[in-house]
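Lecture notes, unit on binding sites. The following record was shown on slide 14. It pairs a sequence with iron/sulfur cluster.
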Amino acid sequence: MAYDPEMIQPKRKQPAASEIETDLSRIQRFSQEHDDENWEFRSWLKQNAPDNIDGIVEALSQKYFSLIDCTQCANCCRSLQTEFKKSELHAIAKTLGQSMEAFEKQFMSEGMVNPPCPMLDGKLCTIYENRPEVCRSFPHLEQPGFTTRLIGVIDNVAICPIAFNAFEELKTKLGWLQGRHNRQH
Ligand code: SF4
Ligand code: SF4
């Protein structure tokens, strides 16, 4: 999720390769138009994913995190609910030098918070160092059990350029896209 470059050393920023898609409108449109394809791929993965699928997806996630600048996106912070735990809110309030009461009055209480996230300033997370765990792991491609979480993955593909590009490359990398093309012709 989006971060404040003044709070952490800039990272993961390299010139984007021309084939990488970062346009949010195009990603959303492509995902809608290829919804059937994504669900076909999900079914195939459930039966045929290689044993090392988690490692393959983790490597793709790291690749696209290195190529895509979250500070130019922040789409997750602007479009998804975020869950804040009480302990996380305490840490955030402390960092901001606020009492819990003042923080809750100004920003939020624990639980699910609707988008856009109140801690977002433009496209930057103002509490990057203390952002919730769910923000740290989004779009959740580096967690075990990839093939058990594919419904959520397909949802995220439509809003997150990192998830989108990783999922598209996975189709090619596993030979699924070519196999589908051959089956259709
Ligand atoms: S939607 Fe994806 S690419 Fe965009 S800020 Fe969130 S994690 Fe980064
Ligand atoms: S705390 Fe809010 S602004 Fe920060 S990364 Fe999470 S959703 Fe985005």
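Take-home: The chain is about 50% helix and 5% strand.
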